[in-house]
């Protein structure tokens, strides 16, 4: 069935693209496109009963990723309508269910909340109809895992760029790992510059100072501008407040990152070995700038040994007495006096009469 995956994906993306061109989230617009493409006939390609279920499972697995982020609200609505239509028109009996991982259920609940707030009641009705029909199959993983099957690492999931929400793209480019990498490179650059020049010239700055805060502020400014432009252009498009809330959350995260990276950035544990290599190559002058590890107090054994070594400089007699003062000498302990035991003899007992 894997050779049917690409053609099915192409047909689904064509339907979603036409639905995106309508700039609406109404179910009647989707039904017109569905009937115009005669999309229900997709299941008639495999009339054999033993292949119907596998083919229906393949189609639902292809459409399901479009129902989750990072796709726009309109594309997610179109994917919901498409899942609803495919679930009710499939030829398998009993019907094949839609797989949803537990980690994605939070996004589904947020999607329903956005639809309710935007008063898209047809979206809410379709989603609750799927819930009442028990169309969802809750799993631990979005795709089934098979035993002893080689995983194809070369084929990665390609995201359709036309369906992705634009405000999320700058945050995908500049991530926390990228900022940490830039900060570490800049720190090594400063260390090498100090190692080469005895008195480095302050005008010798190949890299801009405070690069990380400037980069964060630029991304924050661009995302805010793009958010304002998107909201102004799509006021009547009927996409709901999902884009606004996602952009505000991204703006909040970007502001937190800019504050955190404005301070001194410490190298991660995986990169501390680079600092040691830099110190050994630069010389003892740079080694003074490297923060030393936390001092540990010596153990009891070490303190006792040091104590005995200091006592070795004194006289031999006093040394022996101090060494043996930790334990008691057996000869000095006085033996305890033996107590007399009472022996009772019934023959020698006196008769009271």
Enumerate the spans where pLDDT stays under 50 for 5 or more consecutive residues. Answer: 236-242, 275-291, 319-331
What topology, given as strand order, has the largest sheet? 1-2
Q: Mean pLDDT, nearest integer?
A: 74
CA radius of gyration: 38 Å
Compute the separation of the termini in Å. 116 Å
Q: How does the overall form come out from the CA principal axes?
A: flat
Total number of strands? 2
Largest sheet: 2 strands, parallel
Number of helices: 14
Total of domains: 2
What labels describe this entry?
mainly alpha; 2 strands; 353 residues; 14 helices; flat; single chain; two-stranded parallel sheet
Secondary structure blueprint with pairings:
Blueprint: H1 5-21, H2 27-37, H3 49-63, H4 73-89, E1 98-101, H5 105-117, H6 121-132, E2 136-139, H7 169-173, H8 176-196, H9 211-233, H10 242-261, H11 272-282, H12 284-287, H13 300-311, H14 316-323
Parallel strand pairs: 1-2
């Amino acid at each position: 069935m894997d050779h049917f995956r690409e053609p099915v994906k192409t047909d689904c993306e064509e339907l979603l693209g036409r639905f995106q061109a309508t700039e609406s989230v109404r179910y009647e617009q989707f039904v017109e496109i569905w009937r115009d493409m005669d999309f229900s006939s997709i299941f008639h390609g495999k009339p054999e009963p033993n292949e119907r279920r596998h083919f229906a499972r393949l189609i639902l697995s292809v459409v399901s990723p479009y129902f989750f982020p990072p796709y726009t609200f309109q594309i997610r609505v179109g994917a919901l309508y498409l899942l609803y239509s495919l679930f009710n028109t499939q030829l398998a009996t009993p019907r094949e269910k839609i797989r949803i991982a537990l980690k994605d259920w939070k996004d589904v609940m947020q999607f329903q909340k956005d639809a309710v707030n935007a008063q898209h009641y047809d979206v809410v009705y379709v989603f609750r109809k799927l819930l009442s029909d028990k169309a969802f199959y809750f799993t631990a993983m979005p795709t089934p895992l098979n035993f002893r099957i080689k995983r194809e690492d070369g084929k990665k999931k390609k995201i359709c760029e036309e369906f992705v929400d634009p405000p999320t793209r700058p945050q995908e480019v500049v991530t926390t790992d990228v900022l940490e990498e830039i900060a570490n490179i800049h720190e090594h650059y400063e260390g090498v510059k100090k190692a080469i020049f005895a008195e480095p010239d302050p005008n010798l700055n190949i890299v801009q100072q405070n690069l990380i805060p400037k980069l964060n502020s630029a991304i924050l400014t661009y995302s805010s501008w793009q958010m304002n432009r998107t909201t102004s252009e799509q006021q009547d498009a009927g996409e709901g407040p999902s884009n606004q809330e996602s952009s505000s959350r991204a703006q909040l995260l970007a502001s937190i990152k800019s504050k955190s990276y404005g301070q001194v950035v410490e190298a991660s544990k995986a990169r501390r070995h680079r600092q040691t290599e830099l110190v050994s190559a630069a010389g003892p002058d740079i080694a003074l700038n490297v923060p030393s590890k936390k001092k540990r107090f010596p153990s009891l054994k070490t303190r006792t040994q040091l104590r005995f070594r200091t006592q070795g400089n004194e006289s031999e007699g006093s040394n022996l007495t101090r060494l043996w003062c930790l334990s008691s000498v057996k000869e000095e302990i006085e033996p305890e006096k033996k107590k007399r035991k009472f022996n009772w003899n019934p023959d020698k007992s006196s008769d009271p009469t």
